[in-house]
Amino acid sequence: MGFWPHESLVCISIDTNRIGATLRVGLPNHDGAELAYARTVAGYLANDPKATSALIPVYTSVTPTAGHDRPYAAVIAALTGALAERHITIRDGLLVGDDTVSPYDYDGDQSLSCALPLSTVDSGEINAELVYRGSAIAPTGRIVLPASTKETTFDAVEAHIASIQRSNDHRVLEQARTLWAGILKAKTYPTDDQVTALIANFQFPAIRDQLKADIPVVEGRWNRSCWPKPQASRSGPASNGPSKYCSTPTRTAAPTTRRHSSRPSHI
Fold it and tell me: What is the pTM of this model?
């Protein structure tokens, strides 16, 4: 599953020597819902049509006591009956605590002499083989988001803004343009310091407008004069047209007026 379960019931479906689906369900936190809980789990496990038996490890921090029922005994008893209705038997079970692992003792034997430290499981040959094949176990199944740097970034931008206000305008503009040119030409993402400085620079309209003006643009416009020249046909050469590539719009010369001394010009 990729993580260590906590207060969880794990079911592993088995068909002879084939391992099927693995299911993890949180253990119920109140009494009286054992039957409904067991039927729900059995329904999930029955989605494996080839399952004939199951392994049931129980992960809990509840410490078992000699002479008393195992933790969640009522849940396991209800699950045994619900699985039997679907022709699935419990082949074996484990009770996994915070420090030890032991058989769940479905046959009523409540001896705790078979408990083993979890450290022996971590250093066992099977676990070493799993790690060698790429398995990794996280402490929890929850996604842990990184700590927010919003406040730190805000303070850094404010400090940079104050630095710009204390500096010479011409020098600040040149530094901002140099920074901006480096970011535009780079083939990698800008660093945190570059982003901070850029955000601060954009807070000043004069600097912001200059940086926006420095953004490279494609000269000219796409128009019909930029279309590819048609290929020559068998009947004759293609008509003279514009070249395939052009960077500026085609301009048409203004008509000229011819003057004569003997009579007025006509338009």
Answer: 0.51
